[in-house]
Amino acid sequence: MRFQNAALGAAGLAAFLALGEAVPRLGLVKEEYFPPTSRIASAFADELSDSAFWTALGDTLTGWALGLAIAVSAGIVIGVVVSVVPYLREATASTIEFLRPIPSVALIPLAVLLYGSELRSVLLLVVYAAFWQVLVQTLYGVQDVDPVADETARSYGLGTWARVRHVLWPTALPYVMTGVRLAAAVALILAITGELVIGAPGLGARIAVAQNSQAVPEMYALIVVTGLLGLLINVGARTVERRALAWHQSVRGEVTV
Question: What CA–CA distance (Å, rounded) separates 175 from 247?
Fold first, then answer.
């Protein structure tokens, strides 16, 4: 089954690449706006041999990783504390629901005002966007705790943090891992968007330079890089999720199938 899925995926990718080569060659779109796949592949190879590209990639990954780490840590800690402290969940519900829908890109003027085009501007956007993914999933996970199991732990004399460790955390972990996986993708999107708009060092800024200089094949090659980066991050996040939840029925059932 896995081989068949891999073969179908490869066939679909080959068809997509062939279509990308044929459409501009047939004159359906202008090559100066959408170059053939072969030209994009050539530009992609040139990028891989350019040290400036690897520097930009490192800058993007740095902003992504730091922002994701801060968002995940803050989201888990705040989510658990808000859930276990009496009345704190009700006291913060309105604030969370007010702040959560605010698009991170709306904070770009604030980020530029505070930090200019530095890495900290990108971090502000990444942390704000990824934080809510983890926080909300953590809150949902804690709410899903079996009240009978919680009362049983209380009857055995377990303190607050012992209940968090042995009852709350195992129940909330699947939700938390879902939040981390979503946050990883959102963090990459905001990192590249921030670089593209603000001009902070990274792949986004390099895409903007390619666009402004009419280097269209190079621009598409860099867009392909961001797509591959997103794919790798998603695969990595799913791998971590499966390892962390190897004991959980959802993953065990997935492996059995």
Answer: 14
Closest to 120 measured CA to CA, from 75, 74, 72, 59: 59
Q: Give the type of residue at 243.
A: R
3-state secondary structure of 187: helix
Query: Which residue is associated with the tokens 């969370």?
Result: 96
Q: How far apart are CA 76 and CA 202, in angstroms?
A: 28
DSSP helix, strand, coil percent of the chain (3-state; round to 5): 85, 0, 15
Q: Quick check: 139 and 89 in contact, CB under 8 A?
A: yes
Question: One digit per residue, pLDDT tens: the chain, 257 residues?
Answer: 667 776 777 788 788 888 888 888 888 888 888 889 889 999 999 999 999 999 999 999 999 999 999 999 999 999 999 988 878 888 888 898 999 899 888 899 999 888 888 889 999 999 999 999 999 999 999 888 877 777 787 777 777 778 778 888 888 899 999 999 999 999 999 999 999 999 889 999 999 999 999 889 999 999 999 999 999 999 999 998 888 887 766 665 554 44
Within 10 angstroms of residue 79's Cβ, the number of other Cβ atoms is: 26
Give CA–CA dist 199/203, Å, rounded: 10
Tell me the C-alpha distance between 188 and 229, whole Å: 9
* Structural Rg of the chain based on CA atoms: 22
- Tell me the C-alpha distance between 101 and 124, whole Å: 16
Q: Please report the sign of the dihedral spanned by the C-alpha atoms of residue 205, residue 222, residue 72, residue 83.
A: positive
- The tokens for 154 are 């209380």
Question: What is the C-alpha separation between 228 and 78, in angstroms, rounded?
Answer: 32
pTM of the entire structure?
0.86
